[in-house]
Design a protein that fits this description.
The complex is a heterodimer of chains A (217) and B (351). Chain A is mostly helical. Chain A has nine helices and two strands. In chain B, helix 2 runs parallel beside helix 5 and helix 12 runs parallel beside helix 15. Chain B has 351 residues and is mostly helical. Classes of the chains: A mainly alpha (217), B mainly alpha (351). At the A-B interface, loops of A face helix 7 of B.
Protein backbone atom coordinates (compact mmCIF):
# COMPACT_ATOMS: atom_id res chain seq x y z
CA UNK A 1 0.00 0.00 0.00
CA UNK A 2 1.40 3.33 -1.00
CA UNK A 3 1.17 6.14 1.50
CA UNK A 4 -1.04 9.07 0.60
CA UNK A 5 1.65 11.70 0.75
CA UNK A 6 3.74 10.13 -2.03
CA UNK A 7 0.99 10.39 -4.60
CA UNK A 8 1.45 13.20 -7.05
CA UNK A 9 -2.08 14.45 -7.69
CA UNK A 10 -1.27 15.85 -11.13
CA UNK A 11 0.27 12.56 -12.27
CA UNK A 12 -2.66 10.65 -10.84
CA UNK A 13 -5.06 12.85 -12.79
CA UNK A 14 -3.14 12.50 -16.06
CA UNK A 15 -2.76 8.75 -15.53
CA UNK A 16 -6.43 8.16 -16.31
CA UNK A 17 -6.35 10.37 -19.35
CA UNK A 18 -3.18 9.21 -21.06
CA UNK A 19 -1.37 6.27 -19.51
CA UNK A 20 -4.41 4.23 -18.56
CA UNK A 21 -7.07 5.67 -20.81
CA UNK A 22 -10.02 3.29 -20.42
CA UNK A 23 -10.81 2.99 -24.10
CA UNK A 24 -7.63 3.86 -25.99
CA UNK A 25 -5.11 2.15 -23.72
CA UNK A 26 -6.92 -0.52 -21.70
CA UNK A 27 -9.49 -1.27 -24.45
CA UNK A 28 -12.21 -1.62 -21.82
CA UNK A 29 -15.84 -0.44 -21.97
CA UNK A 30 -15.87 -0.69 -25.76
CA UNK A 31 -19.59 -1.50 -25.81
CA UNK A 32 -20.87 2.04 -25.16
CA UNK A 33 -17.98 3.55 -27.10
CA UNK A 34 -19.34 1.85 -30.20
CA UNK A 35 -23.06 1.91 -29.45
CA UNK A 36 -23.71 5.53 -28.47
CA UNK A 37 -21.03 7.44 -30.35
CA UNK A 38 -22.76 8.07 -33.67
CA UNK A 39 -23.82 11.46 -32.34
CA UNK A 40 -21.56 13.95 -30.58
CA UNK A 41 -24.22 14.95 -28.03
CA UNK A 42 -24.91 11.37 -26.97
CA UNK A 43 -21.18 10.68 -26.71
CA UNK A 44 -20.60 13.70 -24.47
CA UNK A 45 -23.49 12.89 -22.14
CA UNK A 46 -22.45 9.26 -21.88
CA UNK A 47 -18.94 10.41 -21.00
CA UNK A 48 -20.27 12.83 -18.40
CA UNK A 49 -22.36 10.06 -16.82
CA UNK A 50 -19.29 7.84 -16.49
CA UNK A 51 -17.22 10.75 -15.16
CA UNK A 52 -19.85 11.39 -12.47
CA UNK A 53 -20.23 7.73 -11.48
CA UNK A 54 -16.48 7.10 -11.40
CA UNK A 55 -15.77 10.12 -9.21
CA UNK A 56 -18.62 9.51 -6.80
CA UNK A 57 -17.85 5.81 -6.48
CA UNK A 58 -14.21 6.56 -5.74
CA UNK A 59 -15.15 9.09 -3.07
CA UNK A 60 -17.68 6.76 -1.45
CA UNK A 61 -15.38 3.75 -1.43
CA UNK A 62 -12.56 5.84 -0.05
CA UNK A 63 -14.80 7.09 2.75
CA UNK A 64 -15.89 3.57 3.59
CA UNK A 65 -12.48 1.92 3.15
CA UNK A 66 -11.82 1.46 6.85
CA UNK A 67 -15.14 -0.18 7.68
CA UNK A 68 -15.39 -2.55 4.69
CA UNK A 69 -14.61 -6.15 5.59
CA UNK A 70 -12.02 -7.41 3.05
CA UNK A 71 -13.98 -10.65 2.53
CA UNK A 72 -17.12 -8.93 1.31
CA UNK A 73 -15.51 -5.96 -0.38
CA UNK A 74 -16.53 -6.85 -3.95
CA UNK A 75 -20.29 -7.08 -3.24
CA UNK A 76 -20.06 -3.80 -1.38
CA UNK A 77 -18.23 -2.15 -4.29
CA UNK A 78 -20.91 -3.42 -6.66
CA UNK A 79 -23.69 -2.10 -4.42
CA UNK A 80 -22.06 1.32 -4.24
CA UNK A 81 -21.54 1.39 -8.01
CA UNK A 82 -25.11 0.36 -8.77
CA UNK A 83 -26.39 2.93 -6.30
CA UNK A 84 -24.57 5.76 -8.06
CA UNK A 85 -25.55 4.42 -11.49
CA UNK A 86 -29.20 4.40 -10.45
CA UNK A 87 -28.90 7.98 -9.26
CA UNK A 88 -27.30 8.97 -12.59
CA UNK A 89 -30.00 7.15 -14.49
CA UNK A 90 -32.76 8.97 -12.63
CA UNK A 91 -31.05 12.34 -13.01
CA UNK A 92 -30.62 11.83 -16.75
CA UNK A 93 -34.17 10.62 -17.22
CA UNK A 94 -35.38 13.75 -15.46
CA UNK A 95 -33.13 16.40 -16.98
CA UNK A 96 -32.04 15.12 -20.42
CA UNK A 97 -34.90 12.80 -21.47
CA UNK A 98 -34.04 12.91 -25.19
CA UNK A 99 -30.49 11.74 -24.58
CA UNK A 100 -31.70 9.22 -22.02
CA UNK A 101 -34.05 7.69 -24.61
CA UNK A 102 -31.01 6.86 -26.77
CA UNK A 103 -28.30 6.00 -24.24
CA UNK A 104 -30.43 4.78 -21.31
CA UNK A 105 -29.56 1.14 -21.80
CA UNK A 106 -25.86 1.90 -21.75
CA UNK A 107 -26.18 4.07 -18.65
CA UNK A 108 -27.49 1.00 -16.83
CA UNK A 109 -24.53 -0.93 -18.23
CA UNK A 110 -22.09 1.36 -16.39
CA UNK A 111 -22.65 -0.98 -13.41
CA UNK A 112 -20.68 -3.64 -15.24
CA UNK A 113 -17.80 -1.40 -16.36
CA UNK A 114 -14.57 -3.14 -15.49
CA UNK A 115 -12.72 0.15 -15.20
CA UNK A 116 -14.95 1.52 -12.44
CA UNK A 117 -14.68 -1.60 -10.29
CA UNK A 118 -10.96 -1.75 -11.00
CA UNK A 119 -10.37 1.80 -9.75
CA UNK A 120 -12.46 1.12 -6.65
CA UNK A 121 -10.52 -2.03 -5.89
CA UNK A 122 -7.04 -0.86 -6.86
CA UNK A 123 -7.08 2.73 -5.78
CA UNK A 124 -10.03 4.08 -3.83
CA UNK A 125 -10.09 1.30 -1.26
CA UNK A 126 -6.45 2.01 -0.37
CA UNK A 127 -6.23 5.80 -0.51
CA UNK A 128 -7.76 8.79 1.18
CA UNK A 129 -10.51 10.92 -0.24
CA UNK A 130 -8.64 13.61 -2.16
CA UNK A 131 -6.36 11.30 -4.20
CA UNK A 132 -9.30 8.97 -4.82
CA UNK A 133 -11.42 11.81 -6.10
CA UNK A 134 -8.61 13.03 -8.36
CA UNK A 135 -8.10 9.50 -9.65
CA UNK A 136 -11.81 9.13 -10.39
CA UNK A 137 -11.86 12.51 -12.12
CA UNK A 138 -8.85 11.53 -14.21
CA UNK A 139 -10.32 8.22 -15.31
CA UNK A 140 -13.67 9.86 -16.01
CA UNK A 141 -12.18 12.73 -17.98
CA UNK A 142 -10.13 10.20 -19.98
CA UNK A 143 -13.32 8.33 -20.80
CA UNK A 144 -15.16 11.53 -21.64
CA UNK A 145 -12.27 12.60 -23.86
CA UNK A 146 -12.24 9.27 -25.71
CA UNK A 147 -16.00 9.25 -26.25
CA UNK A 148 -15.99 12.86 -27.41
CA UNK A 149 -13.22 12.23 -29.91
CA UNK A 150 -14.85 9.05 -31.25
CA UNK A 151 -18.30 10.57 -31.60
CA UNK A 152 -16.88 13.77 -33.10
CA UNK A 153 -15.04 11.72 -35.73
CA UNK A 154 -17.97 9.40 -36.43
CA UNK A 155 -20.63 12.06 -36.73
CA UNK A 156 -18.48 14.37 -38.83
CA UNK A 157 -17.33 11.65 -41.23
CA UNK A 158 -20.55 9.68 -41.27
CA UNK A 159 -23.18 12.42 -41.43
CA UNK A 160 -21.27 15.61 -42.11
CA UNK A 161 -22.86 17.26 -39.08
CA UNK A 162 -21.97 17.95 -35.46
CA UNK A 163 -24.64 17.96 -32.77
CA UNK A 164 -23.28 20.17 -30.01
CA UNK A 165 -25.21 20.40 -26.74
CA UNK A 166 -25.72 24.04 -25.79
CA UNK A 167 -27.61 23.26 -22.62
CA UNK A 168 -29.31 20.40 -20.92
CA UNK A 169 -32.15 20.19 -23.41
CA UNK A 170 -30.93 22.41 -26.24
CA UNK A 171 -28.55 21.58 -29.01
CA UNK A 172 -27.14 23.10 -32.12
CA UNK A 173 -26.51 21.06 -35.25
CA UNK A 174 -23.66 22.32 -37.39
CA UNK A 175 -23.94 21.05 -40.95
CA UNK A 176 -20.71 20.79 -42.87
CA UNK A 177 -21.68 18.62 -45.82
CA UNK A 178 -25.25 18.27 -46.97
CA UNK A 179 -25.05 14.75 -48.34
CA UNK A 180 -24.08 11.82 -46.19
CA UNK A 181 -20.34 11.43 -46.82
CA UNK A 182 -19.30 8.01 -45.47
CA UNK A 183 -22.50 6.49 -44.13
CA UNK A 184 -20.82 3.38 -42.72
CA UNK A 185 -19.19 5.48 -40.00
CA UNK A 186 -22.51 6.03 -38.20
CA UNK A 187 -23.45 2.35 -38.58
CA UNK A 188 -22.26 -0.16 -35.95
CA UNK A 189 -19.55 -1.53 -38.24
CA UNK A 190 -18.12 1.96 -38.55
CA UNK A 191 -17.90 2.14 -34.76
CA UNK A 192 -15.32 -0.62 -34.73
CA UNK A 193 -13.41 1.04 -37.55
CA UNK A 194 -13.47 4.43 -35.82
CA UNK A 195 -12.39 3.06 -32.44
CA UNK A 196 -9.57 1.09 -34.08
CA UNK A 197 -8.30 4.00 -36.13
CA UNK A 198 -8.46 6.47 -33.23
CA UNK A 199 -6.85 3.97 -30.84
CA UNK A 200 -3.95 3.60 -33.24
CA UNK A 201 -3.69 7.36 -33.65
CA UNK A 202 -3.79 7.97 -29.87
CA UNK A 203 -1.05 5.45 -29.23
CA UNK A 204 1.03 6.76 -32.10
CA UNK A 205 0.85 10.31 -30.73
CA UNK A 206 1.55 9.00 -27.23
CA UNK A 207 4.67 7.12 -28.35
CA UNK A 208 5.83 9.96 -30.54
CA UNK A 209 5.37 12.99 -28.32
CA UNK A 210 4.96 11.79 -24.75
CA UNK A 211 8.35 10.12 -24.49
CA UNK A 212 9.73 12.81 -22.22
CA UNK A 213 6.83 12.36 -19.83
CA UNK A 214 7.36 8.62 -19.72
CA UNK A 215 11.03 9.01 -18.85
CA UNK A 216 10.42 11.32 -15.91
CA UNK A 217 8.15 8.76 -14.20
CA UNK B 1 37.37 -45.48 -50.77
CA UNK B 2 37.36 -44.19 -54.29
CA UNK B 3 33.70 -45.02 -54.81
CA UNK B 4 32.61 -42.90 -51.90
CA UNK B 5 34.66 -40.00 -53.14
CA UNK B 6 32.99 -40.13 -56.53
CA UNK B 7 29.46 -40.13 -55.14
CA UNK B 8 29.72 -37.02 -53.09
CA UNK B 9 26.26 -36.38 -51.67
CA UNK B 10 24.91 -32.94 -51.12
CA UNK B 11 23.08 -32.67 -47.82
CA UNK B 12 20.55 -29.88 -47.70
CA UNK B 13 17.31 -29.08 -45.96
CA UNK B 14 13.99 -29.39 -47.70
CA UNK B 15 12.36 -28.31 -49.97
CA UNK B 16 14.38 -30.21 -52.55
CA UNK B 17 12.01 -29.86 -55.48
CA UNK B 18 11.27 -26.29 -56.35
CA UNK B 19 8.87 -25.04 -58.96
CA UNK B 20 9.19 -21.77 -60.77
CA UNK B 21 5.75 -20.77 -59.47
CA UNK B 22 5.87 -17.47 -57.65
CA UNK B 23 3.25 -15.31 -56.01
CA UNK B 24 3.54 -12.64 -58.62
CA UNK B 25 3.19 -15.18 -61.42
CA UNK B 26 -0.05 -16.49 -59.88
CA UNK B 27 -1.35 -12.98 -59.45
CA UNK B 28 -0.63 -11.97 -63.02
CA UNK B 29 -2.13 -15.20 -64.39
CA UNK B 30 -5.35 -14.65 -62.45
CA UNK B 31 -5.39 -11.09 -63.76
CA UNK B 32 -5.05 -12.43 -67.29
CA UNK B 33 -7.88 -14.87 -66.62
CA UNK B 34 -10.04 -11.90 -65.66
CA UNK B 35 -9.39 -10.14 -68.96
CA UNK B 36 -12.29 -11.69 -70.95
CA UNK B 37 -14.77 -10.51 -68.31
CA UNK B 38 -13.07 -7.11 -68.19
CA UNK B 39 -13.22 -6.77 -71.96
CA UNK B 40 -16.89 -7.72 -71.91
CA UNK B 41 -17.47 -5.03 -69.28
CA UNK B 42 -15.69 -2.42 -71.39
CA UNK B 43 -17.64 -3.58 -74.43
CA UNK B 44 -20.96 -3.12 -72.68
CA UNK B 45 -20.26 -0.07 -70.52
CA UNK B 46 -17.66 1.72 -72.64
CA UNK B 47 -14.87 3.96 -71.43
CA UNK B 48 -16.61 4.57 -68.09
CA UNK B 49 -16.06 0.95 -67.09
CA UNK B 50 -12.43 1.16 -68.12
CA UNK B 51 -11.89 4.39 -66.17
CA UNK B 52 -13.43 3.04 -62.97
CA UNK B 53 -11.35 -0.13 -63.10
CA UNK B 54 -8.16 1.76 -63.89
CA UNK B 55 -8.87 4.16 -61.04
CA UNK B 56 -9.28 1.23 -58.64
CA UNK B 57 -6.04 -0.40 -59.81
CA UNK B 58 -4.06 2.83 -59.52
CA UNK B 59 -5.49 3.68 -56.09
CA UNK B 60 -4.86 0.16 -54.78
CA UNK B 61 -1.24 0.22 -55.90
CA UNK B 62 -0.74 3.75 -54.62
CA UNK B 63 -2.25 3.08 -51.20
CA UNK B 64 -0.23 -0.11 -50.74
CA UNK B 65 2.93 1.73 -51.78
CA UNK B 66 2.13 4.59 -49.40
CA UNK B 67 1.45 2.27 -46.45
CA UNK B 68 4.56 0.13 -46.94
CA UNK B 69 6.62 3.27 -47.36
CA UNK B 70 5.14 4.77 -44.18
CA UNK B 71 5.88 1.77 -41.97
CA UNK B 72 9.36 1.48 -43.41
CA UNK B 73 8.95 -1.76 -45.33
CA UNK B 74 10.21 -2.22 -48.84
CA UNK B 75 7.41 -1.00 -51.09
CA UNK B 76 6.62 -4.01 -53.28
CA UNK B 77 3.73 -3.22 -55.54
CA UNK B 78 4.90 -4.96 -58.67
CA UNK B 79 4.02 -8.42 -57.37
CA UNK B 80 0.59 -8.10 -58.91
CA UNK B 81 -1.44 -8.59 -55.76
CA UNK B 82 -2.39 -4.93 -55.54
CA UNK B 83 -3.12 -4.96 -59.26
CA UNK B 84 -5.37 -8.00 -58.89
CA UNK B 85 -7.24 -6.55 -55.92
CA UNK B 86 -7.76 -3.30 -57.79
CA UNK B 87 -8.94 -5.16 -60.88
CA UNK B 88 -11.42 -7.26 -58.90
CA UNK B 89 -12.63 -4.23 -56.96
CA UNK B 90 -13.13 -2.23 -60.14
CA UNK B 91 -14.98 -5.09 -61.79
CA UNK B 92 -17.33 -5.16 -58.80
CA UNK B 93 -18.34 -1.53 -59.12
CA UNK B 94 -21.07 -0.04 -61.28
CA UNK B 95 -19.83 1.93 -64.28
CA UNK B 96 -22.14 4.78 -63.29
CA UNK B 97 -19.67 5.80 -60.57
CA UNK B 98 -17.74 7.71 -63.24
CA UNK B 99 -19.92 10.77 -62.84
CA UNK B 100 -19.05 14.30 -61.86
CA UNK B 101 -22.31 16.13 -61.34
CA UNK B 102 -23.24 14.11 -58.32
CA UNK B 103 -19.54 13.61 -57.63
CA UNK B 104 -18.89 9.91 -57.05
CA UNK B 105 -15.38 9.43 -58.42
CA UNK B 106 -14.00 9.37 -54.86
CA UNK B 107 -15.90 6.16 -54.10
CA UNK B 108 -13.50 3.77 -55.90
CA UNK B 109 -10.50 5.60 -54.45
CA UNK B 110 -11.65 5.31 -50.83
CA UNK B 111 -12.81 1.73 -51.36
CA UNK B 112 -9.35 0.87 -52.71
CA UNK B 113 -7.72 2.45 -49.67
CA UNK B 114 -9.95 0.44 -47.32
CA UNK B 115 -9.22 -2.73 -49.29
CA UNK B 116 -5.46 -2.38 -49.34
CA UNK B 117 -4.60 -0.63 -46.09
CA UNK B 118 -7.31 -1.59 -43.60
CA UNK B 119 -8.18 -5.07 -44.85
CA UNK B 120 -4.81 -6.27 -46.06
CA UNK B 121 -1.86 -4.34 -44.68
CA UNK B 122 -3.13 -3.74 -41.15
CA UNK B 123 -3.67 -7.48 -40.79
CA UNK B 124 -0.09 -8.19 -41.80
CA UNK B 125 0.02 -7.87 -45.56
CA UNK B 126 -0.10 -10.47 -48.28
CA UNK B 127 -1.15 -13.87 -46.95
CA UNK B 128 -2.39 -12.69 -43.56
CA UNK B 129 -5.66 -10.96 -44.39
CA UNK B 130 -8.76 -12.61 -42.93
CA UNK B 131 -11.15 -11.18 -45.51
CA UNK B 132 -10.98 -10.79 -49.23
CA UNK B 133 -9.69 -7.21 -49.66
CA UNK B 134 -11.64 -6.47 -52.84
CA UNK B 135 -14.90 -7.61 -51.25
CA UNK B 136 -14.35 -5.59 -48.08
CA UNK B 137 -13.62 -2.57 -50.26
CA UNK B 138 -16.89 -3.11 -52.09
CA UNK B 139 -18.85 -3.79 -48.90
CA UNK B 140 -17.47 -0.57 -47.40
CA UNK B 141 -18.49 1.36 -50.51
CA UNK B 142 -21.94 -0.23 -50.66
CA UNK B 143 -22.69 0.52 -47.01
CA UNK B 144 -21.22 4.02 -47.16
CA UNK B 145 -22.72 5.23 -50.43
CA UNK B 146 -25.71 2.92 -50.91
CA UNK B 147 -27.29 5.22 -53.48
CA UNK B 148 -24.26 5.76 -55.71
CA UNK B 149 -23.31 2.09 -55.60
CA UNK B 150 -26.71 0.94 -56.86
CA UNK B 151 -27.17 3.14 -59.92
CA UNK B 152 -26.80 0.64 -62.71
CA UNK B 153 -26.19 1.70 -66.29
CA UNK B 154 -28.00 -0.06 -69.04
CA UNK B 155 -25.43 -1.69 -71.31
CA UNK B 156 -25.08 0.61 -74.28
CA UNK B 157 -22.66 -0.90 -76.74
CA UNK B 158 -21.18 2.51 -77.49
CA UNK B 159 -17.57 2.93 -76.51
CA UNK B 160 -17.32 6.66 -75.99
CA UNK B 161 -20.79 7.26 -74.61
CA UNK B 162 -20.60 9.14 -71.33
CA UNK B 163 -24.35 9.40 -70.80
CA UNK B 164 -26.19 6.20 -70.17
CA UNK B 165 -29.68 5.16 -69.26
CA UNK B 166 -30.03 3.57 -65.87
CA UNK B 167 -32.05 0.49 -65.17
CA UNK B 168 -32.48 -2.12 -62.49
CA UNK B 169 -30.38 -5.25 -62.43
CA UNK B 170 -32.10 -8.57 -63.22
CA UNK B 171 -31.86 -9.49 -59.54
CA UNK B 172 -33.34 -6.14 -58.56
CA UNK B 173 -36.31 -6.72 -60.86
CA UNK B 174 -36.61 -10.28 -59.57
CA UNK B 175 -36.70 -9.08 -55.99
CA UNK B 176 -39.07 -6.16 -56.47
CA UNK B 177 -41.40 -7.31 -59.22
CA UNK B 178 -41.05 -11.05 -59.58
CA UNK B 179 -39.92 -13.45 -62.24
CA UNK B 180 -42.81 -12.80 -64.64
CA UNK B 181 -41.84 -9.15 -64.95
CA UNK B 182 -38.18 -10.10 -65.47
CA UNK B 183 -39.06 -12.34 -68.40
CA UNK B 184 -41.34 -9.63 -69.78
CA UNK B 185 -38.50 -7.07 -69.71
CA UNK B 186 -36.20 -9.32 -71.72
CA UNK B 187 -38.86 -10.60 -74.14
CA UNK B 188 -39.05 -14.31 -73.50
CA UNK B 189 -37.29 -16.79 -71.28
CA UNK B 190 -34.74 -17.89 -73.86
CA UNK B 191 -33.87 -14.29 -74.60
CA UNK B 192 -33.34 -13.67 -70.89
CA UNK B 193 -30.93 -16.59 -70.61
CA UNK B 194 -28.97 -15.44 -73.65
CA UNK B 195 -28.73 -11.89 -72.31
CA UNK B 196 -27.57 -13.15 -68.93
CA UNK B 197 -25.01 -15.43 -70.55
CA UNK B 198 -23.50 -12.86 -72.88
CA UNK B 199 -23.72 -10.02 -70.43
CA UNK B 200 -26.12 -7.64 -72.14
CA UNK B 201 -27.70 -6.56 -68.87
CA UNK B 202 -27.31 -3.99 -66.11
CA UNK B 203 -24.82 -4.79 -63.39
CA UNK B 204 -21.29 -4.25 -62.14
CA UNK B 205 -18.59 -3.79 -64.76
CA UNK B 206 -17.04 -7.23 -64.58
CA UNK B 207 -19.90 -9.41 -63.46
CA UNK B 208 -22.27 -9.09 -66.39
CA UNK B 209 -20.93 -11.61 -68.87
CA UNK B 210 -21.24 -15.12 -67.45
CA UNK B 211 -19.61 -16.72 -70.48
CA UNK B 212 -16.52 -14.49 -70.32
CA UNK B 213 -16.08 -15.24 -66.61
CA UNK B 214 -16.51 -18.93 -67.31
CA UNK B 215 -13.75 -18.80 -69.94
CA UNK B 216 -11.40 -17.20 -67.39
CA UNK B 217 -12.42 -19.67 -64.68
CA UNK B 218 -11.89 -22.69 -66.91
CA UNK B 219 -8.50 -21.28 -67.92
CA UNK B 220 -7.50 -21.13 -64.24
CA UNK B 221 -8.85 -24.64 -63.73
CA UNK B 222 -6.84 -25.88 -66.72
CA UNK B 223 -3.70 -24.19 -65.40
CA UNK B 224 -4.42 -25.87 -62.02
CA UNK B 225 -4.42 -22.51 -60.23
CA UNK B 226 -7.77 -23.31 -58.70
CA UNK B 227 -9.53 -26.62 -58.14
CA UNK B 228 -13.12 -27.41 -58.96
CA UNK B 229 -14.13 -27.82 -55.32
CA UNK B 230 -15.14 -24.29 -54.35
CA UNK B 231 -16.77 -23.09 -57.60
CA UNK B 232 -18.69 -26.30 -58.23
CA UNK B 233 -19.95 -26.70 -54.67
CA UNK B 234 -20.79 -22.96 -54.53
CA UNK B 235 -22.78 -23.00 -57.77
CA UNK B 236 -24.39 -26.40 -57.14
CA UNK B 237 -25.62 -25.55 -53.65
CA UNK B 238 -26.91 -22.18 -54.86
CA UNK B 239 -28.71 -23.90 -57.75
CA UNK B 240 -30.33 -26.41 -55.40
CA UNK B 241 -31.40 -23.64 -53.03
CA UNK B 242 -32.78 -21.59 -55.94
CA UNK B 243 -34.69 -24.57 -57.29
CA UNK B 244 -36.15 -25.63 -53.96
CA UNK B 245 -36.93 -22.28 -52.34
CA UNK B 246 -36.88 -19.82 -55.27
CA UNK B 247 -40.43 -20.40 -56.51
CA UNK B 248 -43.06 -17.80 -55.73
CA UNK B 249 -46.77 -17.77 -56.30
CA UNK B 250 -47.30 -14.67 -58.52
CA UNK B 251 -50.72 -13.98 -57.02
CA UNK B 252 -50.08 -14.34 -53.29
CA UNK B 253 -46.31 -13.95 -53.19
CA UNK B 254 -46.00 -17.05 -51.07
CA UNK B 255 -43.17 -19.53 -51.55
CA UNK B 256 -43.78 -22.65 -53.61
CA UNK B 257 -41.30 -25.45 -53.05
CA UNK B 258 -39.44 -26.98 -56.02
CA UNK B 259 -40.50 -24.32 -58.49
CA UNK B 260 -37.56 -21.92 -58.66
CA UNK B 261 -35.46 -21.12 -61.69
CA UNK B 262 -31.83 -21.92 -60.85
CA UNK B 263 -30.52 -20.69 -64.21
CA UNK B 264 -31.55 -17.08 -63.60
CA UNK B 265 -29.93 -17.12 -60.18
CA UNK B 266 -26.71 -18.73 -61.37
CA UNK B 267 -26.18 -16.37 -64.28
CA UNK B 268 -27.25 -13.11 -62.68
CA UNK B 269 -25.59 -10.91 -60.13
CA UNK B 270 -22.05 -11.62 -59.05
CA UNK B 271 -22.58 -15.36 -58.69
CA UNK B 272 -20.18 -16.40 -61.47
CA UNK B 273 -17.49 -13.84 -60.63
CA UNK B 274 -17.79 -14.68 -56.94
CA UNK B 275 -17.66 -18.43 -57.38
CA UNK B 276 -14.72 -18.49 -59.78
CA UNK B 277 -12.57 -15.56 -58.68
CA UNK B 278 -13.60 -14.31 -55.24
CA UNK B 279 -14.31 -17.43 -53.21
CA UNK B 280 -11.25 -19.19 -54.61
CA UNK B 281 -8.80 -16.62 -53.22
CA UNK B 282 -5.95 -18.63 -51.70
CA UNK B 283 -5.53 -16.56 -48.58
CA UNK B 284 -9.12 -16.35 -47.44
CA UNK B 285 -10.45 -19.80 -48.34
CA UNK B 286 -9.66 -23.20 -46.80
CA UNK B 287 -6.79 -25.12 -48.32
CA UNK B 288 -8.04 -28.62 -47.50
CA UNK B 289 -10.17 -30.12 -50.29
CA UNK B 290 -13.07 -31.36 -48.13
CA UNK B 291 -13.06 -28.05 -46.35
CA UNK B 292 -13.25 -26.23 -49.66
CA UNK B 293 -16.43 -28.12 -50.52
CA UNK B 294 -17.98 -27.12 -47.18
CA UNK B 295 -16.82 -23.54 -47.76
CA UNK B 296 -18.45 -23.50 -51.22
CA UNK B 297 -21.71 -24.97 -49.91
CA UNK B 298 -21.78 -22.37 -47.14
CA UNK B 299 -21.25 -19.57 -49.67
CA UNK B 300 -24.00 -20.90 -51.94
CA UNK B 301 -26.56 -21.33 -49.18
CA UNK B 302 -25.84 -17.94 -47.61
CA UNK B 303 -26.01 -16.23 -51.00
CA UNK B 304 -29.43 -17.67 -51.71
CA UNK B 305 -30.72 -16.90 -48.21
CA UNK B 306 -29.72 -13.26 -48.65
CA UNK B 307 -31.12 -13.11 -52.18
CA UNK B 308 -34.45 -14.72 -51.31
CA UNK B 309 -35.06 -13.49 -47.77
CA UNK B 310 -32.65 -10.63 -47.08
CA UNK B 311 -32.95 -6.92 -47.69
CA UNK B 312 -30.37 -6.79 -50.48
CA UNK B 313 -31.12 -8.15 -53.96
CA UNK B 314 -27.58 -9.60 -54.17
CA UNK B 315 -25.83 -11.63 -51.51
CA UNK B 316 -22.67 -13.08 -53.03
CA UNK B 317 -20.41 -10.48 -51.46
CA UNK B 318 -21.74 -10.86 -47.92
CA UNK B 319 -21.90 -14.65 -48.23
CA UNK B 320 -18.23 -14.92 -49.19
CA UNK B 321 -17.20 -12.46 -46.48
CA UNK B 322 -19.11 -14.42 -43.83
CA UNK B 323 -17.55 -17.68 -44.98
CA UNK B 324 -14.11 -16.02 -44.96
CA UNK B 325 -14.44 -15.85 -41.16
CA UNK B 326 -14.95 -19.59 -41.05
CA UNK B 327 -12.05 -20.49 -43.34
CA UNK B 328 -9.47 -20.99 -40.53
CA UNK B 329 -11.99 -23.01 -38.50
CA UNK B 330 -12.81 -25.21 -41.50
CA UNK B 331 -9.12 -25.70 -42.19
CA UNK B 332 -8.53 -26.81 -38.64
CA UNK B 333 -11.41 -29.28 -38.51
CA UNK B 334 -10.60 -30.83 -41.88
CA UNK B 335 -6.91 -31.10 -41.18
CA UNK B 336 -5.26 -33.40 -43.68
CA UNK B 337 -4.02 -36.70 -42.24
CA UNK B 338 -0.28 -36.83 -41.92
CA UNK B 339 1.09 -39.48 -44.25
CA UNK B 340 1.67 -42.75 -42.39
CA UNK B 341 -0.02 -41.55 -39.21
CA UNK B 342 -2.34 -43.95 -37.39
CA UNK B 343 -5.34 -42.97 -35.32
CA UNK B 344 -4.73 -43.01 -31.60
CA UNK B 345 -7.21 -45.81 -30.82
CA UNK B 346 -5.71 -48.01 -33.50
CA UNK B 347 -2.26 -47.38 -32.16
CA UNK B 348 -3.45 -48.51 -28.73
CA UNK B 349 -5.01 -51.67 -30.16
CA UNK B 350 -1.79 -52.56 -31.88
CA UNK B 351 0.03 -52.32 -28.63
Amino acid sequence: MSSTSSINLKDQFLNGIIKENTIFKLALSLCPSIAVTNNLKNGIFMGLAVLFVQTMVNITISLMRKIIQPKVRLPIFMLVISGWVTITQMLMAAFVPDVYAKVGLYIALIVAFASILARAEMFASKNSIIPSMVDGLGMGVGFLFALTVISFFRELVGKGTLTVPTGLSTQHVFTFINTKPVLIMVLPAGGFLAVGILMALFNWIDIRYMKRGAVSH
Amino acid sequence: MEATKKEQLIVSVSPHVRSDETTSRIMWTVSIALMPAMLAGVYFFGLKGLFITALCIISCMASEWWYLRMVGKKPVVGDGSAFLTGLLLGMNMPASLWSFSPFTVHVPVIASFVAMVITKQLFGGLGFNVFNPALIGRAFALLSWPKAMTIWNEPAVAFFAMDAKTSATPLGILKEEGVARLIEVFGDKMNLYVHLLTGNRAGSIGEVSAIAILIGGLFLLYKKYITWHIPVSFLASAAVMAYVFGGKDPATGKMILMAGDPVIHLLSGGMMLGAWFMATDYVTSPSVRNGQILFGIGCGILTMIIRLKGGFPEGVMFAILIMNCFAPLIDRSFKAKVFGAVKQEKAKENK
